[in-house]
From TrEMBL, chain A:
Coiled coil: none
Alphabetical list of InterPro entries matching this protein: AAA+_ATPase, ABC_AA/LPS_Transport, ABC_transporter-like_ATP-bd, BCA_ABC_TP_C, P-loop_NTPase
Domain ABC transporter: 2-249
Any one GO cellular component localisation term in the record: plasma membrane
Keywords: ATP-binding, Nucleotide-binding, Transport
GO MF, one example: ATP hydrolysis activity
GO biological process: D-alanine transmembrane transport; L-alanine transport; L-isoleucine import across plasma membrane; L-valine import across plasma membrane
Protein name: ABC transporter ATP-binding protein
TrEMBL record, chain B:
Compartments where located: Cell membrane
Region (Disordered): 326-349
Alphabetic keyword roster: Cell membrane, Membrane, Transmembrane, Transmembrane helix
InterPro entries tied to this protein: ABC_BtuC-like, ABC_transp_permease, LivM-like
Gene: livM
Protein's organism: Pseudonocardia asaccharolytica DSM 44247 = NBRC 16224
CC per GO annotation: plasma membrane
Name of the protein described by the UniProt record: Branched-chain amino acid ABC transporter permease
């Protein structure tokens, strides 16, 4: 599904990501962990299209991806759940989710302005799809609320619903658990596990090691921009270099699952 | 349909009918104000789309008003069918906006504001130099609008034309905002990154909304040119661009009807103060001081006390009053299927 090969990206001469290679199979839930400054977010942005690599290739379903714009990637089935609450203000929850369908729908300004015949049908299809996505994350009761009035946990789930509305093949999650309370985190973990069971391929980037190791099939560990280990969660838990990186950094070592 | 929306529909309908009948009773000079109010409302609806919904600032909207006016005027002066001039006015304005927008819509916030302002200043000085456009003296002898030999000769008919054009602009704006494209626009106002990753072609959409708002201004400019029969660079000062922004903010950014309210309030107020300023005994600079002071004061007062604008604040009052009579149910926020945004949230900027 996703094939990242020898990808590097530097900022002002400092490598944020260096020669990173990883390959995600269809239906796999891949976790990416690493201490602060390990290059997780840079790697994420290289896959999402908000950064271009200096070198290396990113392939998605066999095709080169590096120069493809983010909205093309969305159309091609890559959806994103951002860190923080990147929901759209002054729009209701269901409208937020409906935006997610943009990639695979067509009606533009002219069709909208003139209310061309196809417009109504498409609009209804988008609304139905959005409701399904809201049902999937359990937010239908909040559908007509202003999205920004939702608690952070629900906003994160709303982002997942928005991503699902685009009928993605690959879902990127950037630190989805950060800032959530324990109960919200559990709800999110259950949702991710359910999507995984449904066969969705996911790339889960997370600071919280425990959250990743209990959900992921395989885990890639980054440190200082390079891959230092890759394997099943159990293998990663035993890896000397991973333990050193975390203990040396002092972050997250005690939260190991 | 829930109660607040119903009230909105009824009120909107009443305003529309009243505006349609008004030309029958208004005097000549009042009709002139009516036409100017309507054209200002058209431009301001575009400003609201651009600033309120899509979060892009333009301080050069009068430039597209001018482009529409000159397109219509020039075609008329050269003996082309005036109806064609009226149709071309929004098209040319929209097209030029799309071209100018390719570089400048890459800018954000203050930079975009300054770029649009600069565009207007450049346009005005270029127009002032061009002999074909009448230079600084302007374009004179623009014929009246007409089809064949039938002409719109009296002010009343221009009032109705303005009414129809304003209605068309409002309808298009509403249709766009409540469509898929409109959702994309509203989304990119908050976060271009998130919108883009949801599949919204952000750059193209910004260009499209810029062109659409320019087309509204162009249509208004076309009507203005045929109505007055004379236009010059001086008819489209930078202050006019500010005026449109003030109207949009006072009425309520990010609403469909707010611009009409804003345009009405400011146009009428400026006229009243203008006649006050030209009363005998007033110093000669009184009227210009009044008009500048009014924009500034209204903008400041609105931002201080009604930051969302007149219309959203008023709708909220109505909504609260209605809710006061009904037993308050949990989560009884109106489940508006077609949110015009007319009572929600604060301005995007």
């Amino acid at each position: 599904m996703l094939d990242v090969r020898q990808v590097s990206r530097s900022f002002g001469g400092v490598f944020a990501v260096r020669d990173v290679t990883l390959s995600v199979a269809d239906g796999e839930l891949r976790g990416i962990i690493g201490p602060n400054g390990a290059g997780k977010s840079t790697l994420f942005n290289l896959v999402s299209g908000h950064l271009q690599p200096d070198g290396g290739t990113v392939r998605y379903r066999g095709a080169r991806l590096e120069r493809r714009s983010p909205h093309r990637r969305a159309r091609d089935g890559i959806a994103i759940v951002f860190q923080g609450a990147r929901i759209f203000r002054r729009m209701t929850a269901v409208e937020n989710v409906m935006v997610g369908a943009h990639g695979h729908t067509r009606c533009g300004f002219v069709a909208g302005a003139l209310r061309l015949p196809g417009q109504h049908r498409e609009e209804r299809a988008i609304r139905d799809r959005a409701w399904e996505a809201l049902e999937q994350v359990g937010l239908t009761a909040w559908a007509h609320r202003e999205a920004e009035s939702l608690p952070l946990g629900q906003q994160r789930q709303l982002q997942v619903a928005r991503a699902l509305c685009g009928e993605p093949r690959l879902l990127l999650l950037d630190e989805p658990a950060s800032g959530l309370r324990a109960a919200e985190r559990e709800a999110l973990a259950a949702l991710v596990a359910e999507l995984h069971a449904g066969g969705l391929t996911m790339l889960l980037i997370e600071h919280d090691v425990g959250f990743v190791t209990r959900l992921a099939d395989r885990v890639t560990v980054l440190d200082l921009g390079e891959v230092i280990a890759e394997g099943t969660p159990e293998e990663i838990g035993r890896d000397e270099r991973v333990i050193t990186a975390y203990l040396g950094d002092g972050a997250g070592g005690d939260r190991r699952a | 349909m829930n109660a607040p929306r119903m009230v909105g529909f009824v009120l909107g309908g009443l305003v529309a009918v009243a505006a349609l009948l008004a030309p029958l009773v208004l005097s000549g000079s009042q009709l002139t104000i009516y036409v100017l109010l309507g054209t200002a409302a058209m431009v301001t609806v575009g400003v609201s789309l651009l600033m309120g919904y899509a979060g892009q600032v333009s301080l050069g909207q009068a430039a597209f008003y001018a482009i529409g006016g000159y397109t219509a005027g020039l075609m008329g002066v050269h003996g082309l069918p005036t109806v064609a001039g009226l149709v071309c006015a929004p098209l040319v304005a929209g097209l030029l906006a799309a071209l100018v927008g390719i570089p400048i819509m890459r800018l954000r916030g203050h930079y975009l504001a300054f770029a649009t302002l600069a565009f207007q200043l450049i346009l005005l000085s270029v127009v002032g130099q061009l002999e074909v456009l009448g230079g600084d003296i302007g374009l004179q002898g623009i014929p009246r609008l007409g089809i064949g030999s039938a002409q719109l000769s009296n002010t009343q008919s221009y009032a109705w034309l303005t009414w129809a054009a304003t209605a068309l602009v409002l309808l298009i704006a509403r249709n766009v905002i409540t469509s898929r494209a409109g959702r994309g626009l509203r989304a990119l106002a908050t976060s271009e990154i998130a919108a883009e990753s949801s599949g919204v072609p952000v750059a193209r959409y910004k260009l499209a909304v810029f062109a659409l708002s320019a087309a509204f201004a162009g249509l208004a400019g076309g009507i203005y040119a045929f109505f007055l029969g004379y236009i010059a660079p001086g008819s489209f000062p930078v202050l006019l661009s500010f005026e449109f922004v003030v109207m949009a903010v006072v009425g309520g950014l990010g609403t469909i009807w707010g611009p009409v309210v804003g345009a009405a309030v400011i146009t009428v107020l400026v006229q009243v103060l203008n006649s006050l300023g030209t009363e005998p005994g007033m110093p000669p600079y009184a009227s210009s001081v009044f008009s500048y002071a009014v924009y500034a004061l209204l903008l400041v007062l609105t931002l201080l006390f009604l930051p969302r604008g007149l219309l959203p604040t008023a709708t909220e009052w109505v909504r609260r009053a209605l809710r006061g009579r009904e037993p308050p149910a949990a989560g009884d926020r109106p489940a508006a299927a077609v949110p015009t945004g007319d009572a929600s949230g604060s301005p995007a900027r």
